[in-house]
Write a structure and sequence with these properties.
The chain has 13 helices and 12 strands. Helices cover about 45% and strands about 15% of the residues. The longest helix is centred in the N-terminal third of the chain and has 23 residues. The protein is globular. Strand 1, helix 1 and strand 2 form a beta-alpha-beta unit. The chain is of the alpha/beta class. Helix 9 crosses helix 11. A 7-stranded parallel sheet has the order 3-2-1-4-5-6-10, sandwiched between helices.
């Protein structure tokens, strides 16, 4: 049975990929996005003139707008991607993270609660509120510590992760206090098409294509678990369809790598896929820069719960996923040009010098 889903933050990286996959499943999507710097309508260009995709520019803190969309489109689910999500930006300016990630989630949750309570019994039983979060809420791991599970205590170390931890707690509280059928997912580092190039993978791809330095924080040995965005979106769909309200599901790629490994692999693939580049070997562009404050050393996700209970597993290896990522950036110069604003260039200069 097709559904109507209210997606918030659906013009951003993960959100837009999720929206595209839900339209492939023939689900109707009402897409609410404020279109801040990381939101890009070109991410949704494939859905131009698609009556099953309704885009609305707006803020999740705007309760009247959220109420209007819920009443007008009668969604079967709300999927909340809307968030400020870059650690460096949260260090530089934490207030916007508090406003969007905490206050915004509260307003969205409370409107969803009131909407859900007014539904007929059968629809109320089917309704879901899915909150998309991050592994960074768990803090940092030592080299030999076991991966994060759903029972790992929260220990956020940046304004970003603290704001996401706060929003997770609100979602959990609305399930336990009001019975809102909410679920939380905590994912590892995503990569793939349409990612704004403040994040590691697209920043390195685009810089390498232009012969610019490839800046790596500190010694480059910070470890992350890497997850291809389409695998993440498939896991989110399963959580919506089969997940149990009140539960948390960790979503990881089973792919722990250091930042230096990531960049070296990316450079080798780019050498192969763009052999005529004037900058081969691209690894010669690698530059180490001063580490950022409070840089967590290692994240790792134990995703055995969602694999065992819901039957999900990542389909892409890191190499296959990164090949698809690089190919997308090589094949979409119009998208690349669209994000080269003065504000973006100023941000990169400020962060990496």
């Amino acid at each position: 049975m097709t559904k109507t889903i209210l997606v918030t933050g659906g013009a951003g990286f993960i959100g837009s990929n999720f929206v595209l996959r839900e339209r492939m499943r023939d689900n109707r999507v009402v897409n609410l996005d404020l279109l801040t710097y990381a939101g890009n309508l070109l991410n949704l260009g494939e859905l131009n003139d698609d009556a099953g995709h309704i885009f609305v520019q707006g803020d999740i803190r705007d309760r009247e707008l959220v109420r209007k969309l819920l009443k007008g489109y009668q969604p079967d689910a709300v999927v909340n991607f809307a968030a400020e999500s870059h650690v460096d930006r949260s260090i530089d300016s934490p207030e916007s993270f508090v406003q969007t990630n905490i206050v915004g989630t509260y307003h969205l949750l409370d409107e969803a609660r009131e909407y859900w309570q007014r539904l007929a019994a059968e629809r109320r039983d089917r309704f879901r509120f899915l909150h998309v979060s991050t592994d960074e809420v768990y803090g940092s791991l030592g080299p030999l510590e076991p991966a994060f599970t759903e029972d790992t205590p929260y220990s956020p170390n940046s304004p970003y992760s603290a704001s996401k931890a706060s929003s997770d707690h609100l979602v959990r509280a609305y399930f336990h206090t009001y019975g809102v059928p909410a679920l939380i997912t905590n994912c590892s580092n995503n990569y793939g098409p349409r990612q704004f190039p403040e994040k590691l993978a697209p920043l390195m791809v685009l810089n390498a294509m232009q012969g610019k330095p490839l800046p790596i924080y500190g010694d480059g040995l910070n470890v992350r678990d890497w997850l291809f965005v389409d695998d993440h979106c498939d896991a989110l769909n399963l959580a919506l369809e089969k997940g149990k309200p009140g539960e948390t599901y960790n979503i990881g790629g089973r792919c722990e790598k250091t930042n230096l490994e990531i960049v070296n692999t990316l450079c080798a693939l780019l050498d192969e896929m763009a052999p005529d580049s004037a900058y081969v070997p691209h690894c010669s562009l690698i530059t180490f820069v001063k580490d950022r404050p409070g840089h967590d050393r290692r994240y790792a996700i134990d995703c055995s719960k969602i694999c065992g209970e819901l039957g999900w597993s990542p389909k892409e290896t890191f190499e296959s996923g990164m090949r698809k990522t690089i190919r997308w950036y090589l094949d979409n110069p119009q998208w690349v040009d669209s994000i080269k604003t003065g504000a973006y260039r100023g941000w990169i200069l400020k962060q990496y010098g």
